[in-house]
Write a structure and sequence with these properties.
The chain has 76 residues and is α+β, with helices and mostly antiparallel strands. The chain has 2 domains: 1-32; 39-75, no CATH class. Helix content is 24%, strand content 34%. The longest helix is centred in the N-terminal third of the chain and has 18 residues, at 14-31.
């Protein structure tokens, strides 16, 4: 049996430590919010700025990004 010390002389089997760590990771991942990526159609202007020409994605409030692909969004 694989064992290791944890703290002051207490022994916890290595398999139990791995199981506890895995369970903690799974719980943390399940608690993360689901992020939906907004999709924009846009054109690149002659001055290397962006004009957003359309949006498709979830309804509700839409946040207009300041930068797309490293270029400044200057109009919608």
């Amino acid at each position: 049996m694989n064992t290791t010390t944890s703290g002051k002389g207490s022994w916890i089997p290595l398999s139990e430590r791995r199981t506890a760590r895995t369970a903690t990771l799974v719980l943390l991942l399940l608690m993360l919010p689901i992020v939906v990526q907004a999709q924009y159609t846009y054109t690149t202007n002659a001055d290397n700025t962006i004009t957003i020409t359309g949006y498709f994605g979830p309804g509700g409030a839409v946040t207009i990004p300041d930068i797309i692909n490293g270029m400044l969004v200057t109009s919608i």
